[in-house]
Amino acid sequence: MHTMKRFFYFMAVMLLLSCAQQQPKHFTHEVLNRMTPVKDQGESQTCWIYAMLAAIETEHLAWGDSVNLSPYYIEKKMEQEPNAPENRRGMGATLIRLIQKYGIVSYDAMRNVETPAPRWVFMLGATYTPQEFARSVCAPHEYLTLTSQDDQPYYQMTEIDVPDNWLHDRYYNIPMDTLLAKTERAVRKHHGICWESKGHAMAIVGIAHDDAGEKYFIMKNSWGTDRPYKGLDYLSFDDFRRQTLAIEMTKEAYQN
After folding, report:
1. pLDDT tens, 153-212?
2. How far apart are CA 143 and CA 56, in angstroms?
3. Which residues contact 8 (CB under 8 A, 6 or more apart)?
């Protein structure tokens, strides 16, 4: 009997320790920029669409201009791209190129990739083509594509040699210290930023620190809200240095 009591006591302690270890880490937000509601990419591999659109949306919210854009429209238009991979992967620069080519529509106009892509955008009593609407939310040459590749010359354009870059976009190569500083400053000035690693893409929407004082970027993820931080994730500055493949931000954000 005493043995059984000790066993159940041991299991209860282990359960409590396990629960304690699973508790989300505490972060203090230094800045949290405005954002549209968190979306869910589901089983698709289109995080790059969600991340770049989220960065554009946050950029506009900082201007006082609310836009909520449909990732499904771009996913649908990829069916017309002969070189698009079957897995539908891409990069932030890919999204910018596709917007310039096909335009964009609001989230309310297309909430499912199975529906036909709208031919018109109705807003504020006016009618636009998706291309006309796109020019108001992402003007040609408005965004810079940035990377930090230490095996390539700095302060020159270079192509990132990964399968996701199937449009062969070129990126401005700068030292990692500069890229980190530029990104932090842009976020503190409320700009929208698209961040990419080799495996995932998210929008950067803020800056936080943990109880030990370590700095983190606050990331808007596209995996829904059923996770500990309700759709947000935290990327340490150290992990930013290790994992960053590319950054997209406006020219204004880079120059400020």
Report:
1. 999 999 999 999 999 999 999 999 999 999 999 999 999 999 999 999 999 999 999 999
2. 10
3. none
